[in-house]
Amino acid sequence: MYRAARLFTEREVRFCEVLAGYLAGALHVLRVRRTLEAENSRLRSHSPVADELVGTSKGMRSLRERIAKLAPRPFPVLIVGESGVGKELVALALHRQSPRREGPLVSVNCAAIAPSLLESELFGHCRGAFSGADRDHAGYFQQADEGTLFLDEVGELSPECQAKLLRVIEGKGFRPVGAEAEIQVDVRILAATHRDLDREVEANRFRKDLFFRLQGIQIVVPPLRDHVEDVPELAEYFLERLGVEWGHKVTLTRDALLRLSEYAWPGNVRQFRTVLEGAVALADKHVLDAGDFQLPSSLCADRPVSLNLEDVEAWAIRQELRQTKVNVTQAANQLGIVRETLTNKMKKYGISKDE
Q1: What pLDDT, on the 0 to 100 scale, is given for residue 229?
Q2: Across the strands, what pairs with 137?
Q3: Which of 103, 227, 254, 300 has the fewest CB neighbours in a 10 Å radius?
């Protein structure tokens, strides 16, 4: 507020103070509401395997220490790890321990958005920008303003989105689809991928300059097979939650813990929880033994059944389908073949999506 011709009177100053206090309260409410909406959207779109990182092994302690060091920093962080290891939980921990903890955390699975809609979903669009755009839409970047944006599977971004992402990381603005002016946002970017971005850069599927910008600060999340000593603690954590949800407490025998600890867990912690849920649901008892867990070793082993070329090829196809959450197109790209070839090989080896 300003006066062009004269100074403010004392009464006008008091009025401005009251108005500023009122507006500050409204702004605070709007910020809290935006944070709650972002958290609600994150929980609805993706339920993580846990609310926190569980485990006291050396690998998990090292992971927590690295998170504690990087959380207060404003720089982008690249979170690397296999599917199911808990990359979103690392992003959640980074956000909660950062100065932006009161702002929204917006989580986006880039692989789950159609390529034709990706730019509009990330950066927003204006009314009339394309067929069906009947109103202005604030993209994920605007929704995460003054907070954190977590881009899961960042390797799936199109070249156009990669270029815009690089501009935002460098502190520049972006233009929503159909807009004439650029928008500036204050967002910390966390990115995650299970892909080998070095290989993606070599294949010209990922921008080299964006890769160099992201890889400066990395957090590598270890697979469950590298910290199996945490299996008893993970089992206790999940069984306690399942006991609350389903109304009866379940424990494990020593043989059950031994079998769970010896398994390779190609699907990592996400698979571990699913197996526990299945065993608790099917077993009508309060103590689970080793035989209560369905762990098909031939399909889920961390190495081929034999060195026969067909066995190796079938194993590689299963591994990629598991890593890509049964995304056939993405798995074909990872294997270096076209989708039709992969579909034919799946039929040849009897590999189904349900498997």
Answers
A1: 92
A2: 125
A3: 254
